[in-house]
Amino acid sequence: MVSVFTVVSSTAMYGSLTTETEERRRKKHEEVKMLENSHFDYYKMKMIMQIEIAGLLEIMEATKQQWV
Fold first, then answer.
1. CA dihedral sign, ordered 22, 23, 25, 26
2. What's the rounded Cα separation, in Å, for the pair 20 and 10?
3. Tens digit of pLDDT for each residue in 27-61?
4. Over the range 52-66, which residues count as b (16 or more CB within 10 Å of their CB) and which as e?
5. What does pLDDT average to over the chain?
C-alpha cells in the first residue's frame, strides 16, 4: 500500500530534479550561445584583418614598384 506521504514526496523530489535539470540545460545553452557568439566575433575579426593585410600588401607592392 502506497501512502499519501510517499506520493507527495516523490512528486516533490521529481519536480526538484526536473527544475535542476532544466536549470543545468538552460545554463549549458547560454554557455554554448556565448561560445558561438565569441567564435563568430573571432571569425569576423579574422576576415577584416585579412582584408586589411591584403590591402597593405598591395600598397607595399605598388610603392616598391615606384622605387624600382
1. positive
2. 15
3. 999 999 999 999 999 999 999 999 999 999 999 99
4. eeeeeeeeeeeeeee
5. 86
